[in-house]
Amino acid sequence: MGYELQTLAPAFLKYFFLFVTKEELNIADAAALEKYFLEHNINFCINCAAYTAVDKAESEPEQAFLINATALTTLATVCKKNNTQLIHISTDYVFDGTANQPYKETDQTNPVRVYGKSKLQGELLAIKNCPSVIIIRTAWLYGVFKNNFVKTMWRLMSERDSINVVNDQLGCPTYTADLAAAIMHIISSEQSNKNPGIYHYCNAGITNWYDFAVAIKELSKRNCIVNPIPTAQYPTAAKRPAYSGLDTTKIKTTFAVVIPKWEESLRKCLEKLV
Q1: Rounded Cα distance, 124 and 52, in Å
Q2: Is the Cα dihedral 251, 255, 256, 262 positive or negative?
Q3: Is 199 a catalytic residue?
Q4: Fold category of 2-144+173-204+244-260 in CATH
Q5: What is the per-residue pLDDT across 93-130, written as a single tens digit (0 to 9) for each?
Q6: Average pLDDT of the segment spanning 25-46
Q7: pTM for this entry
Q8: Consecutive H or E run containing 226
Q9: Which of 39, 169, 229, 235, CA to CA, is 20 to 30 A from 9?
């Protein structure tokens, strides 16, 4: 997400952007944050920092909660003190994945994995310490930067004759470039400080990992055979949600965000990978 925002930044000439890595600014360090915010007049803070190793979190709960909850509390507190609008990215993992229709922001949360529990606690603490925060839950993120499902499939399909992909987990693929654009649209609309709260964002449409992989294969013109398998044949340390659909009505109606279909966004992403 940080890289996507850096890519977009030159198009928004009315803003001056500051990008920092975790090495340059540790958001768990209250003193460092206080100093940084004191030195810069920051109107918006987009938090892209997160512990996202879903499986590893099961054996590293302290680290997951430190980054996703404790550090976020520190950041939220500093943002409130400096009258900075905080925009924080969360996840569909705050739900248990047992639904059969897209989750709304008002639906009951019930995370069943450490990662989801740490992200939910982060949401609650962010709202408590910075009531003006905007929290955007998303799902199935992919893009041209860093490792993700699309880049992995794109690579494996060029290396192997066949691959197996689970076909019984449903969700909404989300192109990071689209999410970054939506965040900048919200900031530019000058409505963000009037509409704090939780929002859902993902590309339009529901699919499963197998069909998503097949779409990647077809758009990439790969010859690799994609075999559908049930989740039971692909065990992981952290159980994946069977359903990760998110209802995006609220963010569209509140901020007039236009959300592309996942198929067209996937095509744009793959064109950049070629």
Answers
A1: 18
A2: negative
A3: no
A4: Rossmann fold (3.40.50)
A5: 999 999 999 999 999 999 999 999 999 999 999 999 99
A6: 94
A7: 0.96
A8: strand 225-229
A9: 39
